[in-house]
Amino acid sequence: MKKYILILAPLLISGLQLRAQKLEVTVQANTGLFHFAGKSSSATTQVLQGSITGDPMNRANNPYGSKNGFSYGGSIQVQTVSKGGFIVGLQGGYELLRSKVNIDKYSPITTVLYGDYLPITANDPRFAVTGHVAFQNQSINLNPYIGYRFQLNKVKLDILPGMDIGLILDTRDKGEVKDKEGRIYKVDYKRSEAPTDVRLRLGAAASYGRYGLNASFAHGLTNYMKDMVGDASFNAHSEYFRLGLSYRLL
After folding, report:
1. Within the chain, which residues score under 50 in pLDDT?
2. Cβ(64)–Cβ(101) below 8 Å
3. Hey, which residues does 152 pair with through a beta bridge?
4. Rounded CA separation 130/103 (Å)
5. With a threshold of 0.90, does the pTM exceed it?
6. Apex 9 CA angle, 8 and 14, nearest 5
7. Of 193, 246, 248, 250, which is closest to residue 30 (Cα–Cα)?
8. I need a labelling partner for 39 at 20 to 30 A (CA). Which of 15, 17, 130, 207 fits?
9. CA distances to 35, 37, 73, 210 from 66, in Å
């Protein structure tokens, strides 16, 4: 799928240039709040010790946090605006997206001793900790969209429905937790490749001269837990609110 998207993107831009009534090229810097929603997202989970040799394998039991994490990105946008105000465009750029989940327990690896084939003890080895872990995605995001421009005196207001196609480059759990004695347990666990994150997106951009302010909300359609074994109702999808500044080059 990624291959076809990367092939289609420059073709779309070329087509826009040929049909353009007016071509605009804009650079943007965005920040925002990212989190997961769905019945399997969680505000609190535990950290699992993944290795007895050190911290690098520590990971969140359920990384799909329902708490917002600070995220940011940058992009370049190419769009055409017809004389009647209709807009067709494509935005592409890099984003670092983080959701957060609170941690209340640490679960260490334990060695269970057996006597006469029965466990000697069944004590719960987990202990209380405080802190949080971020689920962090680095991605290339493509945003094809259509829209309409309203002219409000000297301010241009663009309403831009479209979609996000997030091509994930790296996914990991990052953070640290602390126990009651003050010991710190770091988390920096690289996860297997996440699915391409497809989101419906509604945006608006207001511009004055070459400068602009933009905002958007994106609702994920991709279930990050679709490959989980067990309950078929596992579901966690992304949601992202962006706010940014732009500068028009053309």
Report:
1. 4, 7, 11, 18, 20
2. yes
3. 155
4. 6
5. no
6. 95
7. 246
8. 130
9. 5, 6, 21, 37
